[in-house]
Amino acid sequence: MKDVFSVEDFRMRAKNFLPKMVFDYLEGGSEGESGLSRNVNAFGKWNFVPRRLADVSKCSLETTLLGRGYSLPFYVSPTGLNGLIRPDGDRILAQAAAKAGIPFVLSTASNLSIEDIAASGDGERWFQLYVLHRDIAKTMCQRALTAGYEALILTVDVPVNGYRERDMRNRFALPATYGLRTLADGLMHPRWSINFLRSGTPKLRNFETLEAQGPEAQAALLKRQMDASFDWDALRQLREWWPKKLMVKGVLRAEDAVQCAACGVDALIVSNHGARQLDGTISPLEVLAEIAASVQIPILLDSGIRRGADALTSLCLGATIVGLGRAILYALASDGERGVERCLEILTDELKRGMALLGASSITQLDHTLVRRSNWA
């Protein structure tokens, strides 16, 4: 990987490695996909205002979230179907996160089960919950609790699935459908195809062993449809089910943040689901400072992080740590475990260098005075 110097380099390698159908699943957004560029470009609307003559001979990236210390202000965001990108992708990400000293979040739609990842080694694990049905959600919570997951992340921006046109055009589905175009694309990407043939079609392991109690729960499980009736009362009930740290992901309004805090939520993740839901949704960075100022609980951010400088901007505007989604999946696709570790190294080096040039020797010294919205944006 001597020619890899940035997340964009990993992105181009991933594009070459993956069949179009799979790369489009990883890369795509909803509807016209204007949100994809908006998430990334939002960081360019902010300029740094460095302090000078500060002692930055030693820069520490250590941070604290909810009473626990971490070596870096990153976490691995929940992403589904990672086994389609690389066999055993969830385990690779979890182990790389543990090695780096950062949390790994397992998606409900993972290809390894809650229990598989719990048994895969050390490291802090969080579980991300989609609510298909209340009974199923409660069972998932119990399994994650029994398996030792330290936090639960409830995703609230998917009452219905986004309209993802790339996946529709590609007839993307699991199990896969094999037309001539799909087979030809596989032949053009032999390394991925060999992996796929060896490992087989990825399964949604969290659902394979799940026993849905009633007919409604069974129907929800079969259709993979979200519970669109999940509301504030349901959140309060979930708070009662889960005794450990509870985070809510997908908040973009200050009043929703305040209500979450009132419900006993421990932290919030400002996110628009990587622009994969409603295409016209505001970029999380645009509302980060407003939300951070509205509550006294920690704020995390994901969606659009491609550089250490993006993380630096987010931390200055009020985020405690930031999530890595597509950035780290590009590396997983292109180079597996070595790629993920290298990607984390690149982002860490970029962040550390950026802090030194900004005049901050620790995460605690980052604040809104170090950034200013550009007049040219």
From TrEMBL:
Residues 1-376 form the FMN hydroxy acid dehydrogenase domain. Its cofactor is FMN. Its EC number is 1.1.99.31. Gene3D superfamilies: Aldolase class I. Keywords: Flavoprotein, FMN, Oxidoreductase. GO terms for molecular function: (S)-mandelate dehydrogenase activity. InterPro entries: Aldolase_TIM, Alpha-hydoxy_acid_DH_FMN, FMN-dep_DH, FMN_HAD, FMN_hydac_DH_AS. Belongs to the FMN-dependent alpha-hydroxy acid dehydrogenase family. This is (S)-mandelate dehydrogenase. It comes from Rhizobium binae.
